Amino acid sequence: MISRKALGVVLIVSMAPMVSSVMAAKGFSYSFVDAGYQYTSGDPENLKVGLVNASFGIFDYVALRAGFQRGKIEDYPPSEARNGDDPDFTEYQAGVRGHYPLMKKKLDVFGTGTWFYNSINSNSSGVSSISDAGGLFDVGVRYQATKKWELDAAVEYRTGDYDGTFGVVESIYKITKKLSISLNTRQNSDIQKYFGGLRLDF
What we know:
single chain; ten-stranded antiparallel β-barrel; mainly beta; Porin
């Protein structure tokens, strides 16, 4: 069942690179892969995942998006039934981002719509496997603060079981022409997410 849900993600990942290099807009890169670790602090459960997010700049003002996350949920209720076994968490994402330069090579505005499907699976007695699907929507800006440092800010809304509005701040520091350090956080009153990893432009 999960493989069928992930079909859209697989198609985006396999097809988009064939056109991204020749059709992407100049200025900010919209063809890249972020890979790293994300920690989510919630109430009461916490989530630790490895994730890969990809963006493919296929037209001047449009980029396709795809993502995958997998990890463990700590302190998942009902705690008395877990017997020390933290459930597995898996999420797939696929979407589209529109973007437009307000100041060439200095400031872009963007908006994104993303579909997601996730599942929680456990072998512990008393803990049922569940799934959820919904949408992620954001609007924000990308700002080239210095030659090597990019600072992004956005407002993101998520539907589904963990719905809510988040403030998003992201910092990208370039190590080489193609490789950067990627750090971001998503914050609201109930859930806080922290990501650290690497970005590869292509």
